[in-house]
Amino acid sequence: MLKLTNTLTGAAEPFTPADGATVRMYACGPTVHNFAHIGNFRTFVFEDILRRHLKSKWNLLHVMNITDIDDKIIRNAAEKGVDIREYTAPFTAAFFEDSALLRIEKPDVITAATDYIPEMIQLVERLLANGHAYREGNSVYFRIASFPTYGRLSRLDRRELKVGARIDSDEYEKEQPNDFVLWKGPKDDTEKRWDAPFGTGRPGWHLECSAMAMKHLGETLDIHCGAVDLIFPHHENEIAQSEGVTSKPFARFWLHAEHLLVDNAKMSKSKGNFYTLRDLIEKGYSPLAVRYLLLSTQYRKQLNFTAASMQAAQASLDRIKEFLFRLRTARLSAGETPEARDILSKAQSEFEAGLDDDINTAQALAAVFDLVRACNTALNDNALREEDRGAILDWFSEVDRRLAIIPAEEVETKDEEVEGLIAQRNAARRNRDFAASDKLRQELLDRGVLIEDTREGTKWRRK
Length: 463
Ligand SMILES: [Zn+2]
Description:
Strand content: 15-25%
Bound molecules: zinc ion
Distance between the termini: 39 Å
Radius of gyration: 26 Å
Number of helices: 15
Strand order of the largest sheet: 5-4-3-11-12
């Protein structure tokens, strides 16, 4: 049974989709005014692991937005004198390139805020009609005094609320629980704007997510997730706007991924500890090692990113690869052993139990390494059989479907093309045609295949 810690209650609660069949999940996507940093990707990797785990149990409809309208985007696009689509397009493309390198699966529906303006206008009209919103100057604001549970998600004390005070910016601090802007009138002639019955302008950031989430997932989502720094004001405001319209709970479960620290400090450009995935690849780290590091700590704990933890992540991945190479190429006799089956079933159940326990990825990885240790011992003792190998490699394929840290070729036992080249090379060697055999070895190397001649024959692995 899957348990997830719900920020609404602070408790780990059993989770099943409301309709018993399909999980309706919304994740706040990137704001595309810059390259996403590795702290952002910690959240997206968590959501990817959650996604894969949910899909192992139910159908999933996972929606993620692209925030392509917000204060910074409007300001930066205006400074460059380009349209906001033109300004955001390269950052959106970079986000998906980085996500692919990190093996983050694409959500089922990806929504750009600029495509949902009519839905946003409709929400504002309904909030104006039922008294949750009011016009002031050429903008429209949400009246937090009209929503008695405002602050429940972020545990704001009602007394802190500044009734009647207003705030226009998309992002603000906890000390400012004011009426927030739903629709902003343009500040000058150049600002991007859309026509609406209540005046020309553009949506506030919070409104965008409510409109896109409810359009695709209905009025009550099963899961809404994001990073902890979105709890206030973003998610608090999403709840107020959505429930202000529907009078139904907006999301049953709220999940929040904790911060990533770099060398125990908050990442910031001024401190020089700010990294994008591109920066880390330039330093020579592999994207899979970055993914491994990002998922190696359970999502609700702070993760401290250091050069040493990066190297440890790479070493852990290498250990798995070494083990798979050894297992794949070992000479085993036919049959199976009850001991190996026990090792495997224990690892499988601990792996699932870890993920079921609030996506405890650290426990799931521990189960993988327990198996690696036990199987290495069994290999030393000649205690593994051919069928055990098949079952263990099959499970590693499943581990990869869930964690995406072991490339498929590590698990494959056969690659006809590679084996064909190795056979040709061995024939050349037998004929003492060393020029040909060296050429074939180089050809294999160019394909990323390393070969090793052993007493048991030629073994190969990928770099
Ligand atoms: Zn959002």
